[in-house]
Amino acid sequence: MLKINFFFRFLFLPLLLLLIASSFGYSPAEARDQVILKIGIYENPPKIFISESGKPAGIFVDIIEHIAHREGWKLQYVFGTWGCCIFHPIS
């Protein structure tokens, strides 16, 4: 009983408190450099397409922009066809 109480009081609790205290204010987006993610854009409305103004649009674009905003990513759109986006790596 004495060994368990010693371990819990002097080793486990301080380590647990240190772990909890160090996690406050941590943001994965702040911990690393900004990520630039290249996104292939092709015509497949309403999922993904190029709007009349020439900008990417559609539900897939809305989803990836929401995720990018939360994660701190910068998006770079590359226009092409379905085949280009799937079979040719974007460099």
Summed up, what is this model?
The chain has helices at residues 2-23, 28-31, 59-71, 82-87, and strands at 36-41, 49-50, 56-57, 74-79. It is an alpha+beta fold. Strands 1-4 form a two-stranded parallel sheet. Strands 2-3 form a two-stranded antiparallel ribbon.
Give a structural overview.
The strands form two sheets. A two-stranded parallel ribbon has the order 1-4. A two-stranded antiparallel ribbon has the order 2-3. It starts with a helix and ends with a helix. The chain is built from four helices and four strands; from the N terminus they run ααβββαβα. The mean pLDDT is 76. The chain is of the alpha+beta class and 91 residues long. The protein has a domain at 28-87: 3-Layer(aba) Sandwich (D-Maltodextrin-Binding Protein, domain 2), CATH 3.40.190. It is elongated, with a radius of gyration of 23 Å. A hairpin with a 5-residue loop joins strand 2 (49-50) and strand 3. The protein is 49% helix and 18% strand.
